[in-house]
Design brief:
Layout lengths: L3 E9 L2 E12 L4 E5 L4 H4 L1 H11 L8 E7 L11 H11 L9 E3 L2 E2 L5 E2 L4 H10 L4 E5 L3 H4 L6 E5 L2 H7 L38 H13 L3 E4 L6 H7 L9 H14 L16 E2 L7 H5 E2 L5 E2 L1 H4 L4 E4 L7 H5 L2 H6 L1 E6 L2 E6 L3 E6 L18 H9 L3 H4 L4 E4 L5 H9 L7 H18 L13 H6 L9 H9 L4 H18 L6 H11 L4 H4 L1
Parallel strand pairs: 3-4, 5-8, 8-9, 10-17, 10-18, 11-14, 14-17
Antiparallel strand pairs: 1-2, 2-4, 6-7, 12-13, 15-16
Helix pairs in contact: 2-3, 7-17, 7-20, 17-20, 20-21
């Protein structure tokens, strides 16, 4: 009999490879051979496919069936190839006719039901790039798959249904031949529910610093005693960020598609609000950065892509976890190396860290109530290394809210600006930065490298005199110098200035703070 072909997608990270599935039926003794570098779960597809075909009222050939997954050099993981293998066998047995340009994704149950799989969104993006025009996906993945333009998507729930669409004479029973589902409205992040910056009492300087961080994409460290509002402020930073653009939303949704444990918890529409991730301080390197055995999975820094990663009680995190953040903070991506290949995941997150001034938390002001020894304080402060702190643009000390501030907030007739109002200012500042950086690969001030700042966005000596003095005294490194300039540009964009002023530079120096705010506390 002739060789029949279908297509599926093999994912490694967010990169997808088109896999050609060839099926041949020969006149030898009945057997089922699967070749082409399948993993253990894919090798078990032989039993799933055989039972699914037979229990769907279709004929499994009583001969030798050979299925090849090509290219053989590409590792294949998981059960998402089941549907494509079954359709290739049926086509080789002349039961169905497969048109070119179609791909099949789905795991088969023994009764022929098609179960959901991970990574449908990045898989279809790869299929579209490879020239595929139609895709058959599980019913539970249909809403996610429909986010891709330029490829016809059909949601299916049973093998009988797919076979009938391709010309097989089979009883479909109560399974319809076409599935259509209404795509849900734009998904709002969980942190948006009832959270607003106007809830914050006092801490005016902290709210201003938060606005600067949102406008320029700057990383931030807040140091203050328990109850000062560090967590409350960090949770409200995403509310100041604009909606994600289409490209960023697709990338973030694709990461969540791969990471979801089950199809039922997967996003059913495009993630347009910046995500917010706040891991516990006991998190491991693999959970934060990504990894795992076999097929690499994205970590929390990738789930926070184009959003906020908040590390509460940052010095309590394990040192390897904190140090693992240094490379993604610079490159905006994380690479996980395995013997099968290298998986790349985006990690363009905004880091916000919170810390107490000392282990007991009472070492602020005069520190009269602090019970920590000098050695305890030094060990606590040294948890945040200089290379990591050097990548943090804003280092903000916080003090507890006073009773006078509480009374002023209660009696004031003018409420604090809401998240929506500040988000509008942030959007205007980002638009100004994007217009200035047009023709470059950067959109936010925090992304601009130092050489470009010094050559293309050069400031006069009269403006940078305070920075020059700090650099000469040794209180500011060259990297810190550049970060202060980036902060100054963001402050200028928020103020509507065409370029930073001396006042903007001084405010940037204040926001930058000292080398280690924990030691200063």
């Amino acid at each position: 009999m002739p060789v029949a072909k279908t297509f599926a997608i093999s994912l490694l990270g967010l990169a997808g490879t088109l896999v050609e599935i060839e099926a041949e039926i020969s006149s030898n003794l009945p057997s089922f051979v699967l070749v082409g570098l399948p993993d253990a779960s894919l090798s078990e597809a032989k039993d799933r496919v055989r039972s699914a075909i037979q229990n769907s009222g279709l004929e499994m050939p009583a001969r030798r069936v050979t299925v090849n997954l090509s290219p053989a050099s590409v590792p294949k993981y998981g059960a998402s190839f089941d549907l494509a293998i079954a359709m290739a066998i049926l086509a080789a047995n002349l039961k169905v006719s497969i048109n070119p340009g179609q791909i099949f994704l789905g795991e088969l149950g023994l009764d022929g039901l098609i179960r959901g799989v991970r990574g449908v969104l990045p898989a279809l993006l790869a299929a579209k790039a490879a020239g595929c025009t139609r895709a058959f996906v599980p019913q539970v993945n249909f809403a996610e798959a429909s986010l891709i333009d330029g490829i016809e998507v059909t949601g299916v729930e049973h093998l009988r249904q797919v076979a009938a669409i391709h010309g097989a004479e089979v009883r479909t029973g109560d399974v319809s031949l076409a599935q259509t589902f209404e795509v849900q409205p734009i998904l709002e992040s969980m942190h948006e529910s009832g959270v607003d910056i106007s809830d914050v009492v006092g801490q005016d300087s902290a709210v201003e610093a938060l606005t600067v961080a949102a406008a320029g994409g700057h990383h931030m460290l807040m140091v203050g005693p328990p109850g000062a509002g560090k967590t409350m402020l960090a949770e409200r930073l995403p509310t100041l960020l604009p909606d994600l653009e289409l490209e960023a939303a697709l990338e973030t949704t694709a990461v969540h598609s791969i990471s979801a444990a089950t199809p039922e918890v997967r996003a059913t529409s495009l993630i347009r609000r910046p995500p917010f991730e706040s891991p516990h301080h006991s998190a491991s390197v693999a959970s934060l950065v990504g990894g795992g055995l076999g097929l690499p999975r994205p970590g929390l820094i990738s789930l926070a892509n184009h959003g906020v990663l908040f590390l509460d009680e940052a010095p309590e995190f394990m040192l390897p976890v904190l140090e693992a953040l240094r490379q993604p903070l610079e490159s905006g991506e994380v690479m996980i190396n395995r013997s099968a290949g290298t998986a790349r995941f985006p990690a363009r997150f905004q880091l916000v860290m919170a810390a107490n001034p000392c282990p007991c938390g009472r070492g602020f002001g005069k520190g009269a109530q602090c019970t920590c020894s000098y050695l305890q304080k030094h060990r606590y402060a040294s948890k945040l290394s200089s290379p990591l702190l050097d990548r943090i643009d804003i280092r903000l000390p916080l003090l507890p809210v006073s009773s006078a501030e509480i009374a002023l907030h209660r009696d004031s007739a003018v409420p604090r600006e809401s998240s929506a109002e500040l988000r509008a200012k942030v959007s205007q500042a980002r638009a100004a930065a994007e217009s200035r950086l047009i023709g470059t690969p950067w959109k936010l001030n925090a992304q601009v490298p130092g050489p470009y700042l010094r050559r293309q966005l050069k400031l006069g000596r009269a403006v940078t005199k305070e920075l020059d003095r700090a650099l000469e005294r040794g209180s500011l490194s060259m990297r810190g110098y550049d970060r202060c300039v980036r902060l100054a540009w963001t402050i200028a964009d928020l103020a509507g200035n065409h370029s930073p002023t001396v006042e903007n530079i001084c405010e940037a120096l204040i926001l930058r703070g000292g080398d280690n705010p924990l030691e200063a506390a």
